[in-house]
Amino acid sequence: MGYPLDQLNDEEAIALDLRPHWWFFVRQVGALVLAIMAGVIALVLGAPVIVNAIIGVVILAALVWFGIRYLAWTTTNFVVTTDRLIYRSGVVTRQGIEIPLERVNTVFFKQSLGERLIGSGDLTIESASETGQQSFSNIRRPLQVQNEIYRQMEDNENRKFDRAAGGGAPTLSIPEQIDKLDDLRRRGVITEAEFAAKKDELLRRM
After folding, report:
1. Which of 101, 113, 149, 203 has the smallest C-beta neighbourhood within 10 Å, fewest atoms?
2. What is residue 146's DSSP assignment?
C-alpha cells in the first residue's frame, strides 16, 4: 500500500514512494532459514521429541520475528513529492518527519561494497529545518533517489520563481518581471543568489 494521496497538499504529486530495501529483512530471514534447516536435520536424524519440540518453538519465534519485521516494512514510507520529503514509520505508534524541499541544503548517500552490489544504501539530508540533519537507512538505489530529490528541488524553485514573476503571464514584459523579482529580493522573499540566477535566465530570453 502506497502513501495515501489524501495526505498530499493541493497540486502536490508523488515523485517517489519507497519501501525499505529487502536487506531490511536479512536477519529475520536468516534466523528463519536456520531454524527450518535445524528442524529438517532433526527429523532426518530422528532426534528426541524434546529436541523437536524446542526446534518447533524456535521456528515459531523466528516466524513471529519475521512477521513483526514485515509489518514494520509495510508501514514505512520514504516519499519524495513535488513539495517535500516525507518519512513515516511505525506499527502501533507512528512517527515521521517532513522536510520542505526549499529547506533542503545537501543530500548525501553512502554505500558499502556489499550495498552497491544489492542496490541499497543510506541517505543523509542536511536542511535548514529544526531537525538539521536526518539519516535514512535501507534506501533503494540511493544515488537515483539523491538525483530525484535534486531534480524536484530545482523544479520546485522554478515554480516559485514563476509564481513570483506572475506565472509567466503575457501581460508582464521581461523588464517588468525583473522589477517584480527585485521587489521580492528587497523584501527578503528571495535571496540575492536566487534573484541573480533568475534575472540571468530572463535576460537570456530577450
Report:
1. 113
2. H
Q: Look up residue 170 and give its amino acid.
A: P
Could you tell me if residue 106 is left (phi over 0), alpha (psi between -120 and 50 degrees) or otherwise beta? beta
Pick the CATH number of 5-20+76-154 from 3.90.320.10, 2.30.29.30, 2.60.120.260, 1.10.10.10: 2.30.29.30
- Please determine, for residue 191, whether its predicted confidence score (pLDDT) is greater than 90: no
pLDDT tens by residue, 121-134: 999 999 876 667 88
Provide the sign of the torsion angle of the four alpha carbons 151, 154, 160, 161, taken in this order. negative
Express each pLDDT in 140-167 by its tens digit: 999 999 999 999 998 888 877 766 655 5
Which pLDDT belongs to residue 5?
Answer: 78
User: Which residue type occupies 184?
Assistant: L
Q: Mapping DSSP to helix (H, G, I), strand (E, B) and coil, where does residue 89 land? A: strand
Burial code (b: 16+ CB inside 10 Å, e: under 16) for 8-22 equals beeeeeeebebbbbe
HSE at residue 80, side-chain half, CA atoms within 13 A, is 24
pTM: 0.70
